[in-house]
Write a structure and sequence with these properties.
Elements lengths: L1 E5 L3 E10 L4 E10 L2 E10 L4 E6 L4 E6 L14 E9 L7 E8 L3 E5 L5 E7 L5 E7 L42
Antiparallel strand pairs: 1-2, 1-11, 2-3, 3-4, 4-5, 5-6, 7-8, 8-9, 9-10, 10-11
């Protein structure tokens, strides 16, 4: 599927693959942060506790400890239903999408049938808003190979932690209130 994120300083778009049972995510991302563009390809393997930053052009790979917890694309058990709405129109059959909006730590909208994510609205500690929109969702995993590091990552050493730019989908939870 696809996902986009918009904040005051960040606009990013990514192709994503998601495996909730295996706790794996692959993001191939492009965006703009503080008027500079960036590209990022990451493989997040939460069960193993590692992330790979992959550069297919240069055929380089960095392996780091994954410090974040896995956040499933699911409605939390403690969420409350805000309401139901139709995106689009109810005037013509097939021209609308029935969605449910839930609130807990985030405000999340999902499809009524299939519970596919549509968008999530997050408030940060700095009282800014983060909007994450999902599109072209696919049920299942069309290509399981996306969760396997490329061959040039084989044997790569674990990198020491360093300060890095926090301008990616990876960091939207860092300052969530």
């Amino acid at each position: 599927g696809g996902v986009s994120i918009v904040t005051q300083e960040l606009a990013a778009f990514a192709k994503y693959s998601y495996d909730g049972l295996g706790k794996r995510i692959r993001l191939t991302e492009i965006g703009s942060y503080a008027n500079a563009t960036f590209q990022l390809d990451v493989l997040l393997l939460f069960k193993q506790g590692f992330m790979y930053k992959i550069n297919n052009k240069d055929r380089t790979c960095f392996k780091k400890h994954l410090m974040e917890d896995f956040h499933p694309l699911a409605i939390p058990n403690d969420a409350s239903l805000v309401g139901q709405a139709v995106l689009g129109s109810t005037s013509v059959q097939g021209e609308g999408l029935l969605v449910n909006t839930w609130t807990a730590k985030y405000l999340s909208t999902v499809t009524e049938f299939g519970c596919f994510p549509v968008n999530t609205l997050v408030s940060t500690d700095s009282k800014a808003w983060v909007l994450v929109s999902f599109y072209n969702n696919i049920m299942g995993i069309p290509d399981p190979q996306v969760f396997t590091p490329p061959t040039f990552c084989k044997g790569v050493q674990l990198e020491e932690e360093e300060e890095e730019d926090k301008h990616s989908f990876l960091y939207i939870d860092k300052n969530v209130s």
